[in-house]
Design goal:
heterodimer; A: 185 residues; mainly alpha; Arp2/3 complex 21 kDa subunit ARPC3; two-stranded antiparallel sheet; 7 helices; B: 306 residues; alpha+beta; six-stranded antiparallel beta barrel; 32% helix
Chain lengths: 185, 306
């Protein structure tokens, strides 16, 4: 029997999935890698003369913790924040502190709000992103800068609007993470 | 699905412990972050080596996006050009006629300047660029304004060197790593550039505001002599920047000065030039006998026409 090419391709793909399991390195490592890439990406996309880029590393971190709570350990803010601090231009240690606090705060919020749907998650993430951006400014100002708060408004709005997109991307990476590619047995 | 009201992970002692230690590690992470923060606030240079080394990892990505950034910008400018072609052509023609006469004038002044300097025996101190590089990344998500270039100490770049583009000043090298350097842009709130008005000597300081504009603070308080459209150039005071590099154009007057738009927007800059440290001030001059040859340059006609 001759099958149409689409069905044949599908069959081939399914055959390739039999007897395979996801690679444990990719399954565990991809979330970390995606967050690190997010941190790097927000520095190279534009040469900005004002803070306009959403903190993509932090948003990806939030999205992973909301989408797959427990996949990243609660102390993940320490190593990931260290990497973010290398690139962000903030005083060193600000992301380590803020990401760790954010992870704990998110856990507490999730405990209080048992029923969730995407809109509430977005609301929580928006509040956290706004707080994070203002806190970053406060820390930078503590370390001898003197930037007014008002210039952050575009960045906060951009972060809130871009968050659903980041969630989509994280969901996509989450599917890729578990693609069975390693042969079992 | 709602999570169970009781978050205890069952009766397994091991699971309870791992959950507890997870939280403990989270709190510990926050404390370590706070400690690092205090350390870096006390001693800002402590981690800059690691930071410039890390930016080298994104160097290829930065170089790749630099090309795309330029392409995207030119597409926009082409569309804009079509929209305003007529009126702009007219305006440019008028400005060109004016600029031609001013150019002739400035050439005469420059020739005279050279002749007078030769007469006085002043040796022109070289402003040969140290390096030319592309801006590869910037702290776009932070309220601080830093950028990086892919050249460092191996290419002769040193801390404190001024960085400019062909349009004007961009910033100065904050930390030169082995193969990449971090630049403090003039729009950062910690950057303070001594400036003067291009056509006379109204002296002021230009401080960044973090949003692409500069706050101009006059040194002599009194009647505000600045006007909209005034061009400000570096005055060379303090010895960090040499004189006569265009900085900004005044857009709005305030009580104690003005706010100005930077001329060389880093977002619209392809290549930047790293210049040697100006030695007009005595403090950083290495050799005393040279000091007589390090007079501040008086390029009367070199500033751009307002």
């Amino acid at each position: 029997m001759i099958l149409p090419p689409r069905i044949r391709a599908r069959n081939r793909m399914l055959r390739q999935r039999i007897n395979r399991a996801p690679s444990p390195i990719i399954a565990v490592g991809l979330p970390w890698l995606s967050i690190i890439l997010g941190s790097m990406l927000s520095t190279v996309l534009v040469i900005a003369s004002a803070p306009i880029m959403p903190p993509l590393g932090f948003l990806t971190f939030l999205a992973w913790r909301q989408l797959r709570p427990g996949l990243l350990p609660i102390w993940a803010g320490l190593p990931l924040g260290l990497v973010d601090d290398l690139y962000s231009g903030q005083p060193f240690g600000s992301a380590v502190l803020l990401w760790s606090v954010a992870a704990i705060a998110l856990d507490v919020i999730e405990e209080r709000v048992p029923w969730r749907y995407f809109f509430t998650e977005w609301l929580v993430a928006a509040a956290m992103a706004a707080t994070y951006i203002v806190a970053c400014l406060a820390i930078a100002n503590l370390a001898s800068a003197s930037t007014p708060v008002l210039i952050l408004v575009p960045q906060i709005i951009a972060s809130i609007l871009v968050y659903p997109l980041v969630c989509r991307l994280v969901a996509l990476i989450d599917q890729l993470r578990l693609v069975p590619i390693v042969e079992v047995g | 699905m709602a999570p169970p009201a009781n978050r205890r992970p069952g009766y397994s002692r091991r699971a309870q412990y791992s959950s507890f230690f997870g939280y403990l590690a989270g709190v510990l992470g926050a404390l370590i972050g706070a400690a690092l923060l205090i350390l870096s606030i006390r001693n800002p240079d402590f981690f800059s080596g690691a930071q410039t080394a890390a930016t080298q990892a994104v160097e290829p990505a930065g170089a790749a996006t630099a090309g795309t950034r330029k392409a995207g910008r030119s597409v926009l400018s082409v569309i804009e050009g079509y929209l305003f072609a007529g009126s702009r052509y007219d305006k440019i023609n008028r400005e060109l006629a004016k600029a031609r006469s001013e150019l002739a004038e400035s050439q005469a002044v420059r020739a005279e300047n050279r002749r007078l300097k030769k007469l006085l025996g002043i040796v022109e101190s070289g402003h040969e660029p140290v390096a030319v590089a592309r801006l590869t990344s910037s702290s776009a998500a932070s309220s601080r304004r830093f950028a990086t270039i892919g050249l460092g100490r191996n290419d002769g770049v040193r801390d404190g060197m001024p960085v400019r583009s062909n349009l004007g000043i961009v910033g100065r090298i904050l930390h030169a790593g082995a193969g990449s350097s971090r630049i403090l842009l003039v729009t950062d709130t910690q950057s303070l550039v001594p400036v003067r008005r291009a056509r006379d000597d109204v002296a002021a300081f230009a401080q960044g505001r973090g949003d692409g504009t500069l706050q101009i603070r006059l040194i002599d308080l009194g009647v505000n002599p600045l006007k909209k459209g005034d061009v400000l150039v570096t005055s060379g005071a303090g010895g960090l920047y040499r004189t006569g590099i265009p900085v900004a154009v005044v857009t709005e007057l305030t009580a104690d000065g003005a706010s100005a738009r930077i001329l060389s927007d880093p977002a619209a800059t392809d290549y930047v030039i790293v210049e040697p440290i100006s030695r007009t001030s005595g403090s950083s001059a290495p050799a005393v006998p040279q000091a007589s040859g390090e007079q501040p340059r008086a390029d009367d006609g070199a500033g751009p026409a307002p």
